[in-house]
Amino acid sequence: MLRKEEFMLGAATSAHQTEGNNVNSDCWLLEHMGNSSYHEPSGMAADHYNRFREDIAGMKNAGMNAYRFSMEWARIEPEKGRFDDKEVMHYKEVIDCCRQNGIEPVVTMHHFSSPLWLGREGGWECEKVPEYFSRYCSYIAEKLGSAMHYVCTINEANMRLQLASLMESYMASMHMDVQVGVDCQKSEEKQNQVNTFLSPCSGQGELLIMKAHEQARDAMKKICPELRIGLTLSLHDCQAAGDGKEKAKAKWTEEFVHYLPWLQKDDFIGVQNYTRAVFDENGEVPVPENAPKTQMGYEVYPEALEHVIRAVAGDWKKEILVTENGIATADDGERISFIKKALNGVHHCRQDGIPVNGYLYWSLLDNFEWQMGYSRTFGLIAVNRQTMEREEKKSLFFPAEEWKRLEHN
Fold first, then answer.
1. In angstroms, rounded to a whole number, what is the distance separating the alpha carbons of residues 347 and 152?
2. Is residue 402 part of a domain?
């Protein structure tokens, strides 16, 4: 376990995007349906399920000391009420491997993909999802709680609301960024097929997510009071242009402020940011044609992270972790430049006394970017799609080098 004062610097992944062959999940089903909204199936992904030791060793060699990964609910509970202890022990091995390499594991209990049996009961619109999710989290706490320290219950708990807003804007032929790999046209065509976490939600669906978080947090705390538990939110740097102050404020309230009542018993918040969103009096302004853009179509704007951390800190006085921040690009020099500016922003926040205690780049590996498939490259490590051979990029070594420079200047 890291010393309390030690800054967590590392990278992040998710199970479905990297492990491969997640055959019991709702996303796997969607990938293989006729006329699927996914550009390609995940298949072997990055084979991280079998190669995690190699990947974690690579992080150690690069000077990193933290790794955020997710456990796959669909592996652990492949049938309703039946837990697979072999899979639980797999994640115990991942945690142990982190510890052996001097790396703090930051465990996410749910990162978008869910068991297929949950989908058949209505997915994340099912009224029993808080009960089911907290039961799963309790099981993990009983089996692995003493091995963990940081736990994120739900990744980007506000994502379903963002997707609903995105689809409304798409239907009105407007542009809006959402920080996940989604094809708007295909999503609109297929959104009613299976209700997954990446389906736009109703107000009731959003309430179920927050109830699931609360119940899971409280259940895990009851078993392991020492666990530090929070969730992560997808947050834009909401900026005003012209008379857009009220529009920008409303968007920030929607993405962050109105979640605060559910988070009061949390120990930390996970901040996830990739770009900014600019608003005038009419709403969100499209990214200018001549602005540099990522492979995802986002404006390249690493300064957004510092702005978001400062905005969060205005209402949140507890620990902050940057659980995702990164860039999809084929140019590793551009990636290094992005990380440099982002880390400098984090350092400025810490100098001003903001309790941001970690930065976890997204992503450790080039991986499966949901509906976009393997066409988007966020990773610090490239993965050969045929052989699964890893190729370390220069950017893998940059975060630790840059942070050391910042801390000693």
1. 23
2. yes
What is the model's pTM? 0.94
399's tokens: 């975060």
**Mind listing the pLDDT tens digit for each residue in 222-240?**
999 999 999 999 999 999 9
Residue 268 burial by CB count (10 A; 0-12/13-18/19+): exposed, middle or buried? Answer: buried
The angle that helices 159-171 and 245-255 make with each other, rounded to 10 degrees, is 140
Distance spanning both ends of the chain, measured CA to CA: 27
The residues, any chain, with a CB within 8 Å of residue 9's CB and separated by 6 or more, are: 63, 64, 65, 66, 358, 359, 360, 399, 400, 403
- Measured CA to CA in angstroms, residue 339 lies from 355, 376, 395, 401 at distances of 20, 17, 8, 11
Residue 205: which CATH number? 3.20.20.80
Residue 194 to residue 236: CA distance in whole angstroms: 28
Q: Which domain holds residue 117?
A: 8-236+258-276+296-408
Q: Is 294 left (phi over 0), alpha (psi -120 to 50) or beta?
A: beta
Q: Residue 363's closest CA among 114, 122, 84, 70?
A: 70
DSSP 8-state class, residue 23 = T
Compute the distance between CA of residue 328 and CA of residue 330 in angstroms, rounded to an integer. 7
